[in-house]
Write a structure and sequence with these properties.
CATH architecture: 3-Layer(aba) Sandwich
Organism: Halogranum salarium B-1
Protein name: Creatininase
Radius of gyration: 18 Å
Number of helices: 7
Pfam families: Creatininase (PF02633)
Cofactor: Zn(2+)
CATH topology: Rossmann fold
Distance between the termini: 40 Å
GO molecular function, one term: metal ion binding
Number of domains: 1
Number of strands: 6
CATH class: Alpha Beta
Length: 245
């Protein structure tokens, strides 16, 4: 059940304590892919898993702005501080829990959100009347995960499958020409770069030409299967807090 499409009476009659909360970002993804890529992909994975899940699950509206200051040199990128982001996610989960949806899987589409989500879901579980975990779709696609860049093969592939009209196919060569081979500028296992503009001319990392719609379909299937398995685990998990040892 999608909250944005349901009435409050429909939601009140919903017999579940399980919810998914998509989170993404509004940030550059090169000249060929939309600023909303991370939000669109996270929502698509959440929707697919909700449809495939055997029982009822509530789907909250996606949070579209995340921790993305690393892309600040590219026009249109929006960001909030980690503190603001964590507070927004926490308070959104608290509002879900107030209605009885107190087992929440946050479905993430942006790498910059990962650390903050791990921290805030821990805080929620330890201190609030809810249990929460974070799931990042591109970490759950098997061997494909090694190809994750930025506006590169994985994100372009998934967009070509779920929203092909958003990909500027006539700019793929331009995206390839200005792309970096890897994320960051590394020395002694340290990334010397804080912003993507330091190592990528146009914000792209990886080759978007390596991501066709068929690969995108595979990615969605893998991420969906993984998320459904997680939903099943969260739904049946004993979430009582352990006693002091």
């Amino acid at each position: 059940m999608h909250l944005t499409e349901a009435t409050w009476t429909d939601v009140d009659a919903c017999d579940t304590d399980l919810a998914v909360l998509p989170v993404g970002s509004t940030e550059q993804h090169g000249p060929h892919a939309p600023l909303g890529t991370d939000t669109v992909t996270a929502a698509a994975v959440a929707d697919a898993a909700a449809d495939a899940y055997d029982d009822e699950v509530v789907v909250a509206p996606a949070i579209p702005v995340g921790i993305a200051e690393e892309h600040r040199q590219f026009t249109g990128t929006l960001w909030v501080s980690p503190e603001t982001f964590r507070s927004y996610v926490r308070e959104t989960v608290q509002s879900l829990a107030s209605h009885g949806f107190d087992r929440v899987v946050v479905v993430n589409g942006h790498g910059g959100n990962v650390d903050a989500l791990r921290e805030v879901t821990g805080t929620i579980t330890r201190h609030d009347d809810a249990y929460a975990v974070a799931f990042t779709w591109f970490e759950a696609v098997g061997e494909h995960a090694a190809d994750m860049g930025h506006g590169g093969p994985l994100e372009t592939a998934l967009l070509r499958h779920i929203a092909p009209e958003t990909v500027h196919e006539d700019r793929i060569e331009e995206a390839r020409a200005g792309a970096a081979d890897r994320w960051g500028d590394w020395k002694s296992h340290v990334n010397l770069a804080h912003d993507s503009a330091e190592f990528s001319e146009n914000g792209v990392v990886g080759d978007p030409a390596d991501g066709d719609a068929e690969r995108g379909e595979t990615l969605l299937t893998l991420a969906c299967e993984s998320l459904v398995a997680l939903l099943e685990a969260v739904a049946t998990r004993d979430v009582t807090r352990p006693d002091h040892r």
